[in-house]
Design brief:
single chain, 2 domains, three-stranded antiparallel beta sheet, 2 helices, binds iron/sulfur cluster
Length: 118
C-alpha cells in the first residue's frame, strides 16, 4: 500500500492526514479521522447527493442523497441509474427513491417534500 496524504472530510475541521504503508494514520484529531484515512486508502466510498426528475411538482427536480456511502468504483454506474428515473409527486422527505442502489445495500432517498402542484 502506498503512503498517502489526505484531508479528512468527516467534519469541517479538515485535518491533514498521513497514511503510511502499514495503514497507520497520523494527523487526525479524533478516531473518526483514522477510520476515514484507512478506508479512503483501502476502499474509498462517497455519499451521493443529486437530483431526480419529478412530474406534477412545483419544481422539475427533487433533491436526493444516498443514506450511506457507496464504493467510489460504483459512483458512475449509480449516477447513470439515477439519471434514468423520474418520480411523480407527491414525494415525502425520506421516501426511498431507489432501493439498494447498484447493489450497494444503500438506498437513495428524497431530501425534500415535493407536494403535488395545484
Ligand atoms: S480527524 Fe476528526 S476532527 Fe479531524 S477532520 Fe476528521 S473527523 Fe474532524
Amino acid at each position: 500500500m502506498e503512503e498517502r496524504d489526505l484531508i479528512c472530510i468527516v467534519c469541517p475541521r479538515g485535518c491533514h492526514l498521513h497514511v503510511d504503508k502499514d495503514l497507520n494514520v497520523t494527523g487526525n484529531f479524533c478516531p473518526r479521522g483514522a477510520a476515514y484515512g484507512k478506508q479512503e486508502v483501502t476502499n474509498p466510498t462517497r455519499v451521493i447527493t443529486s437530483t431526480v426528475r419529478i412530474e406534477n411538482a412545483l419544481l422539475p427536480l427533487c433533491p436526493v442523497r444516498s443514506n450511506g456511502a457507496i464504493p467510489k468504483g460504483k459512483l458512475f454506474e449509480a449516477m447513470k441509474e439515477i439519471d434514468k428515473i423520474s418520480l411523480k409527486a407527491p414525494v415525502k422527505i425520506g421516501d426511498v427513491v431507489i432501493h439498494d442502489l447498484v447493489g450497494s445495500g444503500v438506498d437513495l432517498i428524497a431530501t425534500r417534500d415535493m407536494p403535488v402542484v395545484k
